[in-house]
Amino acid sequence: ERIQARVQRMENLTEDLLNYARAAKRCKDVAQVDLPGLIQNILDLLVLPENAQVQIALEIKELLTPKAPLETVLRNLISNAIKHHDAVRQFQLTIGNEAAGSYLCFRVVDNGPGIPANAQDRVFRLFQTLTGTGTSHGGVGLAVAKRLCESHGGRLELDKNHVTGGCCFVIWWPRFPRSDIDE
């Protein structure tokens, strides 16, 4: 059983590394993306805690962009909020967006335990986890999400000024096609 568990961990590590390497490549297949539908599809595929409260507050409802990378980033942030939420309080998640110059600024906010101040600078590094538990995928998701954002001309940040508890991740995603990064 130990050998099987280690083989599985190595397979997961290999897959995680491949995903991280692929995240550096910019997807050029743009389509009109229905953002409320995209977020609802992500939520439908995840197992939400019982009595979860999810608020979707989108100012911009459609975006011409590569769908898969944006969906991957949002799925990672939403699934992390679920996975790391403590069972002490009712799960609350807010997903919103607003226009911010040439970017669409998404905020994914949860009411979980948050990230300790001493760990906030390393959450986007490869293989960094907050717990030492032997999870099947160890510390690659946020690194992949950040890399996807950057390879598509945006950025991903942890809002360290968020004071209401939990986490607030901010995605700066280009609102318009970026010819300067396609050259």
Features:
183 residues, alpha+beta, 4 helices, 7 strands, globular
Structural class: alpha+beta
* Strand segment tally: 7
Q: What radius of gyration results from the CA coordinates?
A: 17 Å
- Terminal CA distance: 50 Å
Instruction: Report low-confidence residues grouped into runs of 5 or more.
Output: 132-137
Series of H and E elements: HEHEEHEEHEE
- DSSP strand (E) fraction? 15-25%
Described by strand count, sense and barrel closure, the largest sheet is: 5 strands, mixed
Based on Cα principal axes, name the global outline: globular
Q: Specify the helix fraction band.
A: 25-40%
Summarize model confidence as the mean pLDDT.
Answer: 81
Strand order of the largest sheet: 2-4-5-7-6
Question: What is the helix tally?
Answer: 4
Would you write up a description of this structure?
- With 183 residues, this protein is α+β, with helices and mostly antiparallel strands.
- Helices cover 33% and strands 24% of the residues.
- It has helices spanning 2-22, 35-45, 67-83, 141-151; strands at 30-34, 53-58, 62-66, 92-100, 103-110, 155-158, 168-174.
- A hairpin with a 2-residue loop joins β4 and β5.
- It is globular and about 50 Å long.
